[in-house]
Design a protein that fits this description.
With 205 residues, the protein is of the alpha/beta class. 39% of the residues lie in helices and 18% in strands.
């Protein structure tokens, strides 16, 4: 809307261009998360009334979030790279696909006690109780930041496009320490990308 107001270009044209940019932010990097990696699932779309934990509500987006631990200059543990990916459900096969794509099998994966996290896939898997999130502070901070970004900047994301917004958030977050690298890498990705065609019906969904 802001680009539409500033340039006078049609709103749908601006929206179409934004979706092309988001596709260029899709992560196909072979660089996997290493060291200690926290993993957890969340719902994007708000909590269900009178319910806690995992949900099967079809109106909300199920997302697997993965956050790498790094040490800052003070020796404190903080967030390194992170990824968030849509999942179809909470079964082992649903969780395994994005974990294999983004996490090294040598990583020390830290997860809650959910039975779908299977040690044979990640030998260094360590599971412990959430304790209301106290045992996983970094990943819950990251989840709150994703939800705050969607609510504050975009208000909501439709089922059709939520994956594109997660791509955008991951891309921005993982290049947050170098704005010039972020811009240059995005432009390079856009130049190298294949043509993208999205129907107006899908665009407005």
């Amino acid at each position: 809307m802001e680009l539409h107001r500033e340039t006078g270009i049609r709103q749908k044209t601006c929206w179409y261009f934004k979706r092309k940019i988001q596709e260029a932010m899709r992560n196909d990097s072979p660089n996997l998360l290493k060291g200690v990696v926290e993993v957890d699932e969340c719902l994007i779309g708000g909590p269900e009334k009178n319910k806690q934990g995992r949900s099967s509500d079809s109106n909300k987006h199920k997302v697997l979030v993965m956050v790498e631990h790094v040490k800052n200059k003070k020796g404190e543990i903080t967030m390194g790279k992170a990824y968030a990916a849509l999942i179809d459900g909470y079964a082992a096969e649903d969780l395994l696909i994005p974990m294999q794509k983004h996490i090294s099998t040598e990583a020390y994966v830290s997860a809650d006690k959910w039975r779908a996290y299977i040690q044979k896939d990640f030998p260094n898997l360590c599971q412990e109780y959430l304790d209301s999130g106290k045992n996983f502070p970094l990943i819950h901070l990251h989840i709150m930041n994703i939800k705050g970004w969607i609510r504050g900047v975009h208000h909501h994301c439709s089922n059709t496009h939520i994956g594109a917004y997660l791509n955008e958030y991951n891309f921005r977050f993982n290049l947050r320490t170098d704005r010039r690298q972020l811009f240059n890498k995005l432009v390079a990705n856009m130049v190298a990308a294949a043509p993208l065609f999205i129907s107006l019906q899908a665009l407005c969904a």
